[in-house]
Structure formats: C-alpha cells, structure tokens
Amino acid sequence: MIPENLKYSNDHEWLRMDGEFAYVGITAFAAEQLGDIVFVDVTTVDETLEQNEVFGSIEAVKTVSDLMLPIGGEVVEFNENLDGDPALINSDPYNAGWIIKIKPTNAAEADTLLTAAQYADLIK
Q: Which residues, other chains included, contact 92 with Cβ-Cβ below 8 Å and sequence gap of 6+?
C-alpha cells in the first residue's frame, strides 16, 4: 500500500511535509528490493543540500545504495532510532522508519515529485 499523503521521487524516496519541516525516507518498494537493511549512514546533518543531492547511504545485506534528497533543504535531524534498529525501515518505512528531517529551502519543489498514483505506475 502506497500512502496517499506523501510525495515520491523516481529514486524511491518519500517526502512528508509537516509545517515548516519535512520527513524523508525510502518507500516500502525500495526496502523490499534492498532486502534486510543493516546500516544507515547520514553524515549531512546541519548541511544544506540541493534537490537530488546524496544525503547518505543505506546498507543492506546485498548492497549499498545512495540516498537522494527529494527536495532541497537543510538536514536538521537523523532518526537516531535507526542506529540501533535499521530494520525499522523494512518493518515500518513510512512511519518509524523515517530517515531524516529537513527544513526545505523551497517547499514548492515538492510539486515536482510524484503522487501516490504516479509512483504506483512507476513501480508496476
């Protein structure tokens, strides 16, 4: 099930706006493709990045993948729960498994992202 209240990137990240901040994670589809996630590395807290810049990486048993920022902004927080339990991304990718919180530099960039229906078409 793809949550309707989120926006999606072609790189399988999701974005949830929350007032002046936004939360970013990877989709259930991406988590399923990666398999068991064993480590999340985000070294960009307190940095301001552009849309589609790499903000970290995610390591699964099979591979390591870059994480891309769906909209530009300042990375203000990393989900510390992932340090002890990176598998939260596998079990609850849209809630407890969020990866970073950002302060968008241009929230209108969210309008360039995919809707849930568009993302569903992408992963068919």
A: none
| Domains, the chain, with CATH or none | 14-106 (2.40.50.100)
What is the phi/psi pair of residue 60, to 5°? -115, 175
CA distances from 18 to 12, 57, 65, 96, 122 (A): 20, 24, 26, 15, 25
0.90 cut: is pTM over it? Answer: yes
Q: How far apart are CA 33 and CA 43, in angstroms?
A: 24
Please, which residues have CB within 8 angstroms of residue 66's CB and are 6 or more apart in sequence?
54, 56, 57
pLDDT in tens, the chain (124 residues): 899 999 999 999 999 999 999 999 999 999 999 999 999 999 999 999 999 999 999 999 989 999 999 999 999 999 999 999 999 999 999 999 999 999 999 999 999 999 999 999 999 9
